Amino acid sequence: MQEITSVQNPRIRALRALKKAQARTETGLFLVEGRKLCEEALRDAQVQTLLVDSRFQKQYAALLKRAGEVLVAPAHVLEAVCQARTPQGIAASVHMPAPLRLEQAGGLLLALDGVQDPGNVGAMLRTAEAAGFAGVLLSPQCADAFSPKAARATMGSVLRLPLWRGPLAQGLEALRGRGFTIVTAELGGEDFFAALQTLQAPLVLVIGSEGNGVTPQVSALAQKKLALAMYGRAESLNAAVAAGILMYAAGRAVREKGF
User: Which CA distances in Å does 241 have to 120, 207, 246, 247?
Assistant: First the structure.
C-alpha cells in the first residue's frame, strides 16, 4: 500500500490518462469508478491498481485486501482521476477482457453501427448481457465502451461481455459466412413482432446510430430488415430503449425453438 499526495505523481498521471482513448488503447487498461464497479472488477476481471480516498480506507478495507497494488490518496487526487462528480472514494485500473473472437462466436450477438452516445452504448451492453447475448460488435464510429461514462452505464457488464471492434461490414460478412442471420433494425422494415417466429440462431441483431440508423454497407448484408411499429406520434425510440425491446423479444423467440 502506497500513500500519494500529489496529482503529479507518475502513478496518478497514468491513471488520469486512462480517461483518454489513446491511453486505453496503448495500455490495454481502462478505469472503473465507485464501489460497485470496483467490487465487480475484483471479482470478474484483472485489476492492476486500486486507488482509494484516505478517508474511506477503513470502509473499503475488505476490498483493499483483495487488490494487488493499492494507492491511498487525499480526496482531491481521487477527484482528479475520476470523471464522476461523486466517485465514492474508490477507483481502479482494470485490464480489458479478452475480445470477442468472431471465428468462435455463436448464439446471439449484438452489433452497434455508429452508436455515438457512451451512455447508450453502455446501456446496450448491460441489456445484452442481461438478455443472454454472447458478445457485441462495435463499428469504429461507436463510442468507446471502455470510456468512464460508458463503463459506468454498463453497471459491470463491460467486465464480462466479450467485445469486438472493427470494420462492421467486414465482421458481419465473416459471421454471415459462418451461418449467422444478420438482422438490422431499420425504419421502413418488416414489422418486428410479426417476424419474430422466423428468427433463429445464430443471429446478429444490428442497431444503427441515433441520428442516421444503419449504414448502407451494413444494410446490404442484412437477410432481415425489421422495425418496431410506432403507434403514437413519435417517429422513433431512443436507440438503447429500442435495442432492449428487440434483444429480449428476439432472444425469447430463439430460445423457444430450443436454442
Answer: 9, 11, 9, 10
